[in-house]
């Protein structure tokens, strides 16, 4: 049976999307994970995947034209299949249709719709009762295979609105608020809090009270019909289960009088209502003084605050090890830690690593940095210098900017550099896009914003994906040198150590120079030793002579 692909709902403010480019034409064979089209929204340009396989029978919106959310943009089926009945019976745009909505590819999306699996005959639209909406686990990043339900904000039997936050989901990258985008009663919760669900698994069903949903639950495969395009928004902060609470900023603006005038996230408002907390007593630590979940987590009435030290002392005493007695604490893996373990293990044991080391004299770079920072404005770090120098060197050595794709090597014509940063839950890699086209101060500004977002778990998917080269810097922690594991699909990663005063011999004289040690990890399937060595030589030249990066 032919499948209708609709314009997905990609953000809470999106009304329509413009087809920026079609990557397939009528008659082309399409796989479920092919990029069907690029869609420009009010937030960003995103790649749309159909999540069904077959032949592209129909394109409903020309390149450059707009389609409203839930309008038909394409139909996929068997070659020669009659699809006219689908067009004639197509309903007007609605929150959820009888066919699967197109889902955006995870890498560049700001807030992807839930991916839809190909519907088997047992889960045909006719078997789903009218007015029932299935909410599935959305695909939120290119590395996500499952999401963990941190908490449910609604329980079975509750009346829900389309903009209510149903649950908080922990992924490998962030904690996200998931909305169902359907009005009705919460008939079924498919995954209890604390448990994980694979992408596209049913996590909830919304409909009219008393509706028989046994046919949906007993279906042998995930149903594609009447599935709500869940549109998650990044949660304001990590959940208490995954990160310790932090003290709100002292300078955060206080909430204003009147509920309607207070800036607050839907999740934070719900928690405040449940706990009976006066919003005017809170100080928002989010953007523009917005009250977010962590502000509720950190809130303590005066009485509770007075007794907190005693409680903390008691807790600490309970965890002290007894002399001569073995003890341990088991910590459940977060989604981020699971993905770090999986991806880096795969990289280490599938990509044949080899390592190249070089020492760089940083005296001129240190002088240049001081002069730039003395001018005022955006401060520049040594890491910013290295990002800029790597981008310039990658221009001259495109082989290092390539990716291993299994049965072919992809030469990337753009340069986007990931800069690894440690967060409470593990490691994340914000990406400075088109770094070779940015000035040093532009790189510094972009990196500063991305690092701040990463620490506050506010990174959007397009901000931590799409890297073509990665840098890992432990120099600020006093590490002289180390080797890093390649971050797929990159073919190389640069490990940056500490700058150390070191005696060196120049013109038969011993002088002290500021030495930085760099280690390049290379995937030998893509990059040979000589290629990596030439890249490091060029990189060394740029860093030791910063003025050359202005050419």
Automatic annotation (TrEMBL):
Coiled coil: none annotated. Its EC number is 2.3.1.12. It comes from the Bacteria. InterPro entries: 2-oxoA_DH_lipoyl-BS (IPR003016), 2-oxoacid_DH_actylTfrase (IPR001078), Biotin_lipoyl (IPR000089), CAT-like_dom_sf (IPR023213), E2/Pdx1 (IPR045257), E3-bd_dom_sf (IPR036625), LAT1 (IPR006257), PSBD (IPR004167). Binds 2 lipoyl cofactors covalently. The keyword RNA-binding does not apply. Residues 88-125, 224-260 are annotated as: Disordered. The keyword Transmembrane helix does not apply. It catalyses: N(6)-[(R)-dihydrolipoyl]-L-lysyl-[protein] + acetyl-CoA = N(6)-[(R)-S(8)-acetyldihydrolipoyl]-L-lysyl-[protein] + CoA. The pyruvate dehydrogenase complex catalyzes the overall conversion of pyruvate to acetyl-CoA and CO(2). It contains multiple copies of three enzymatic components: pyruvate dehydrogenase (E1), dihydrolipoamide acetyltransferase (E2) and lipoamide dehydrogenase (E3). Belongs to the 2-oxoacid dehydrogenase family. This is Acetyltransferase component of pyruvate dehydrogenase complex. It comes from Rurimicrobium arvi. The lineage of its organism: Bacteria, Pseudomonadati, Bacteroidota, Chitinophagia, Chitinophagales.
């Amino acid at each position: 049976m032919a499948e209708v692909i609709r314009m997905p709902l990609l953000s809470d403010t999106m009304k329509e999307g413009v087809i920026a480019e079609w990557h397939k034409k009528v008659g082309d064979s399409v796989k479920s994970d092919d990029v069907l089209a690029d869609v420009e929204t009010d937030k960003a340009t995103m790649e749309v995947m159909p999540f069904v396989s077959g032949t592209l029978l129909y394109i409903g919106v020309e390149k450059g034209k707009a389609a409203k959310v839930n309008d038909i943009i394409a139909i996929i089926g068997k070659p020669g299949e009659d699809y006219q009945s689908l067009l004639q019976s197509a309903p007007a745009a609605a929150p959820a249709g009888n066919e699967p909505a197109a889902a955006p590819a995870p890498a560049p999306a700001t807030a992807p719709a839930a991916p839809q699996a190909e519907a088997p005959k047992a889960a045909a639209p006719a078997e789903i009762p009218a007015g029932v909406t299935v909410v599935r686990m959305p695909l939120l990043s290119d590395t996500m295979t499952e999401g963990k339900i941190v908490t449910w904000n609604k329980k079975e039997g509750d009346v829900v609105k389309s903009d209510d936050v149903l649950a908080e989901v922990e992924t490998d990258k962030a904690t996200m608020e998931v909305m169902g985008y359907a009005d009705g009663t919460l008939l079924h919760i498919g995954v209890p809090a604390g448990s994980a669900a694979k992408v596209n698994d049913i996590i909830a069903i919304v409909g009219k009270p008393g509706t028989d949903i046994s046919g949906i639950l007993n279906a042998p495969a995930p149903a594609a019909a009447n599935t709500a395009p869940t549109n998650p928004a990044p949660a304001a902060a990590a959940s208490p289960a995954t990160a310790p609470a932090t003290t709100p900023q002292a300078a955060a603006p206080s909430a204003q009088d009147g509920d309607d005038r207070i800036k607050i996230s839907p999740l934070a408002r719900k928690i405040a209502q449940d706990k009976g907390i006066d919003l005017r007593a809170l100080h928002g630590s989010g953007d523009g003084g917005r009250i977010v979940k962590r502000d509720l987590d950190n809130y303590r009435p005066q009485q509770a605050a007075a007794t907190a030290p005693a409680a903390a002392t008691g807790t600490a005493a309970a965890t002290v090890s007894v002399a001569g007695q073995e003890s341990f604490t088991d910590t459940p893996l977060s989604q981020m830690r699971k993905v770090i373990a999986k991806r880096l293990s795969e990289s280490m044991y599938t990509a044949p690593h080899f390592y190249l080391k070089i020492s760089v004299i940083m005296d001129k770079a240190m002088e240049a940095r001081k002069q730039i920072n003395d001018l005022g404005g955006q401060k520049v770090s040594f890491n910013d210098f290295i990002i800029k120098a790597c981008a310039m060197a990658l221009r001259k050595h495109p082989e290092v900017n390539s990716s291993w794709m299994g049965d072919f090597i992809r030469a990337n014509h753009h340069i986007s550099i990931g800069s690894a940063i440690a967060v409470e839950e593990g490691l994340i890699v914000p990406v400075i896009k088109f770094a070779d086209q940015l000035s040093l101060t532009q790189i510094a500004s972009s990196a500063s914003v991305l690092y701040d977002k990463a620490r506050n778990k506010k990174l959007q998917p397009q901000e931590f994906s799409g890297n073509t080269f990665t840098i890992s810097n432990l120099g600020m922690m006093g590490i002289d040198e180390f080797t890093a594991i390649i971050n797929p699909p990159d073919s190389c990663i640069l490990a940056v150590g500490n700058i150390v005063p070191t005696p060196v011999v120049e013109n038969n004289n011993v002088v002290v120079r500021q030495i930085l040690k760099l280690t390049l990890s290379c995937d030998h399937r893509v990059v040979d030793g000589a290629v990596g060595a030439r890249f490091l030589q060029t990189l060394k030249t740029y860093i030791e002579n910063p003025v050359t990066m202005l050419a």
